[in-house]
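Incident log, support desk, overnight shift.

02:14 A customer reports that sequence design results differ from what the structure should imply. Their input is reproduced verbatim below. On-call engineer (initials T.W.) acknowledged and began investigating.
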């Protein structure tokens, strides 16, 4: 009995230690001596052979020094399907290539950071499903250039416990405080409207990717935002440190049943740049509303 009590105490201690571990929004996977195009081709080949599916890619903010690849996997789809609802936002991860200080840096959204933020208290239900994802990405980075594996995007990082209830400050939105962009009579009507509008063309908005969760009436879209209020306007204001946080983009909305939802800018931007000062936030005060207006144009 005493041995069992000690074992339970050890398990509890390990779980508490994991919850207290610092997590960072992004991981610097590797650096490459190839140009962005060559680096991207090598990374995509490694991602595909490593069990990931490339959903889409584009040049964020029209910046020749940036390239973004969006991926999913069997684990990401299965986990989102198990929990459903807003966890559909976790169905994709982002891999970025940024040319800076004379080389191409390959980075990606740190799975544990974003999974804790998006699954919150449901994370334990899918942790065993998602566990292989981080290891596979790490191995892929080792094959894609000079390996680093260092987290970045925040000086001290955030704990899992903090991420599960994250908001920038008191009075700011949390993950579940989404914005409803539109309501339709059915899931199918919502998808048809979005796809029709995207095919016709929407000023300032272009589809980068979409991924659907089978049997759940969930479909995640990632959209490139251009024009005077788009990415080239707000990215240089907030992405001011090194390494660059290119994997912040693209912005997403989620079709959930007959509703189309987006994460509030004051949550999504803050989660992506948790060390932003209040002064930085003031400088992009209109950005959250500009993003909402651009995404809303897709569902009209």
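02:41 Re-run completed on a clean worker. Output:
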């Amino acid at each position: 009995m005493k041995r069992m009590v000690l074992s339970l105490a050890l398990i509890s201690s390990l779980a508490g230690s994991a919850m207290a571990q610092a997590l960072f929004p992004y991981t610097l996977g590797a650096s490459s001596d190839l140009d962005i195009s060559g680096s991207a081709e090598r990374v995509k080949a490694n991602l595909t052979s490593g069990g990931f599916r490339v959903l889409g890619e584009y040049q964020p903010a029209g910046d020749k020094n940036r390239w973004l690849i969006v991926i999913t996997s069997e684990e990401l789809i299965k986990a989102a399907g198990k929990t459903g609802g807003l966890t559909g936002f976790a169905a994709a991860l982002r891999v970025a290539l940024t040319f800076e200080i004379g080389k191409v840096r390959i980075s990606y959204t740190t799975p544990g950071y974003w999974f804790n933020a998006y699954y919150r208290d449901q994370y334990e239900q899918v942790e065993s499903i998602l566990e292989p994802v981080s290891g596979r990405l790490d191995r892929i980075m080792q094959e894609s250039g000079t390996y680093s594996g260092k987290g970045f995007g925040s000086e001290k990082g955030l704990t899992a416990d903090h991420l599960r209830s994250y908001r920038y400050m008191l009075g700011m939105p949390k993950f579940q405080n989404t914005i409803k962009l539109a309501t339709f009579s059915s899931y199918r009507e919502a998808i048809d409207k979005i796809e029709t509008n995207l095919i016709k063309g929407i000023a300032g908005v272009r589809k980068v990717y979409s991924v659907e969760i089978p049997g759940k009436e969930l479909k995640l879209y990632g959209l490139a935002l251009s024009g005077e209020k788009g990415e080239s306007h707000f990215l240089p204001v907030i992405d001011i440190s090194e390494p660059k946080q290119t994997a912040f983009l693209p912005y997403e909305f989620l079709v959930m049943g007959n509703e189309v939802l987006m994460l509030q800018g004051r949550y999504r931007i803050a989660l992506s740049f948790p060390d932003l000062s209040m002064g930085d936030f003031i400088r992009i005060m209109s950005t959250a509303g500009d993003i909402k207006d651009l995404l809303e144009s897709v569902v009209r």
